[in-house]
Every structure is written in structure tokens, then in C-alpha cells.
Amino acid sequence: MIFSSIDAVATGLQQAGYFADRRLATAVFLALKLQRPLLLEGEPGVGKTELAKALSKALQRELLRLQCYDGLEQREALYEWNYAAQLLHMRAAEASGASSDVESEVYQPRYLIRRPLLQALQTPTPGAVLLIDEVDRADEPFEAFLLEYLGEYQVSIPELGTITAQVPPVTILTSNRTRELNDAVKRRCLYHWLDYPERERELAIVRAQVPEASEALTRQVADFIGRVRSAPFASAFQRAPGIAESVEWARALVALDALVLDPEVVVDTAGILFKQRDDVAAVTQTLAAELLQPEDAGA
């Protein structure tokens, strides 16, 4: 599938369950049109990873995921040789006396174990969506290793030479900004800062993901989360809830047969919204009551 316009991107993502605003839909459209990687930065839980999943569905392309972490090695991202199979081949060649060029024989594609980067380059039409998730958790040498792939959609394997993409993969990189990424990585990507959604978009997401929740409860969830993220309440918490927490909270409230929010149920379920001990402890019934007040009530 090819998107012909920004509106088509937004519609396609929405049909896949992802509600993108105009700026994000524009960034995705340009990444597809220009065949450039898209770097998404933002707080945890704002929907960076989910965008790649939805894009895979919308484009009807296979999703390949490379989860980054400290100490990630090239062989885990690109390829490694099947040493056991190579050894068996060498022994068989020696036993048969046909070992004249055995070294070149064992470095054949059939002995290659392909990891996400190489899989993405060799995926046939229509190609793959490659998610390089939380790239900020990897170290700087790994960023340098990515440059050839990001800039030219190719990689170099010493034993085989340069491998270029059959179909340029749609590449999404995500970062929670635990550290600043190298400028060389950023220059090879289109960039988009993904912020928390506005109320109406979050309301649409919760409605779509938790259709069994009542309209009143859904609106209360969106209003409550919006107030938690805004002044003066945001300063009371180490980390505001993301979209994933909003959806999970709505599901939990439905499981509890809650029709509307009240301070008691907010306190009882605070561990679903917040993942820090101090944040959970900060949710008292008094604070919950304040957060549940309509905005005009506090004016």
C-alpha cells in the first residue's frame, strides 16, 4: 500500500488503531515519500513504538523489531555465522578429501543467521517496517555502526561484501532521550518530537481501545489524565502517565465495574497509572478529589 497524501496516512493509521495528529502524519508521509528513516523522540508511553506497529499494519508490511540496550553488539543487530553448521561442513569436506576451498565454502549465505537489520534489507516486495526501539539505550559505537544502514540502506559484511536493500525498509527509530543521540544519526533521519496527546485525541484513543467503557467514564479518564499532566499538578509527580497507562487504567476501571471515577477508586488504582513508588503515594484522596473537579469548578 502507498499513501497518496497526508490525510491518507492519518486515515490509514486510524484504521490500524492509531490516532495521529496532523504534524505526525506529515512526518510519516515525508519519511515514506523521501525514503528516509524517521526518528521519534518523546517521553515513555506517548505512542512511539505503537506508531511502528500501526504503520506495519497500514502498509501491510512485516514488522521487524530491534530492541536496543546497553551493550548491544553488532552481531545481535545485523548477522552472525552459524558456526556449528560451518564446522560440520568443514569436517565433512575433510573426511571426503574435498577440502581445497573449504574456507570460502563455509562463508556462504546459507550459513548466515540474519538479525533484524539484515532481514529488513533482504525482505522482498513490499518490504519491511524496521523498528529500532529505544536507540538511546545503546552505546555510541553502536550508533556509529548504524550510520551506513541509515544513510544508504546497506551494510557491509566482510566475507560477502556490501548488501543493499532489495526494497528500502520503512525505518522508525525511537528514543526516550535518556541521553543525547549523535548528530550524525540525526542528520540521516527525519525528526519528530512526539508529545502527550491533546484531550480529544486521547479521548478517541481510549474510546477505540476500550469500547466497553461508558462514555462518561471515558471522558473522566481523559480529563483526569490531562489534569495530571498539566500545571500545577504535574510538579507533584516524577513522571506523568502515558497513553498506554490511560488505556490500561480504563480497562482496569471497566474490570472493576466502575461507572464513574471517585477519589476512592482513583487511590485504589493509582498503581496502574503511576510506576514510581513516590508518585503512587502522592495520590491521596484529597488530591484525587481536586483532580476530579471540572476545570471551571476550580476557577
What does it look like?
By secondary structure, the protein is an alpha/beta fold. The chain folds into three domains: 6-78 and 115-193, 3-Layer(aba) Sandwich (Rossmann fold); 82-109; 199-292. The chain contains 16 helices and nine strands. It has helices at residues 6-15, 22-34, 48-59, 74-77, 83-96, 102-106, 116-122, 140-152, 183-187, 199-209, 215-229, 243-255, 263-268, 270-273, 277-282, 285-292, and strands at 38-41, 62-67, 79-81, 112-114, 128-133, 154-157, 161-164, 170-175, 190-193. The protein has a five-stranded parallel β-sheet with strand order 2-5-8-1-9, sandwiched between helices. Strand 6 and strand 7 (161-164) form a beta hairpin. Helix 1 packs across helix 3. The longest helix has 15 residues, at 215-229. The mean pLDDT is 92. It comes from Variovorax guangxiensis. One of its GO terms (molecular function) is ATP hydrolysis activity. InterPro entries: AAA+_ATPase, ATPase_dyneun-rel_AAA, CbbQ/NirQ/NorQ/GpvN, P-loop_NTPase. Pfam families: AAA_5 (PF07728). This is MoxR family ATPase.
Gist?
With about 300 residues, the protein is of the alpha/beta class. Helix content is about 50%, strand content about 15%. The protein has three domains: about 150 residues, 3-Layer(aba) Sandwich (Rossmann fold); about 30 residues; about 90 residues.
Adjacency order of strands in the biggest sheet: 2-5-8-1-9
Amino- and carboxy-terminal Cα gap? 50 Å
| Number of alpha- plus pi-helical segments | 16
Largest sheet: 5 strands, parallel
Could you give me the name of the CATH homologous superfamily of the largest domain? Answer: P-loop containing nucleotide triphosphate hydrolases
Question: What's the β-strand tally?
Answer: 9
Shape: elongated
* The CATH class of the largest domain: Alpha Beta
Please give the share of residues in helix: 40-55%
InterPro entries: AAA+_ATPase, ATPase_dyneun-rel_AAA, CbbQ/NirQ/NorQ/GpvN, P-loop_NTPase
Protein name: MoxR family ATPase
Pfam families: AAA_5
GO molecular function: ATP binding; ATP hydrolysis activity
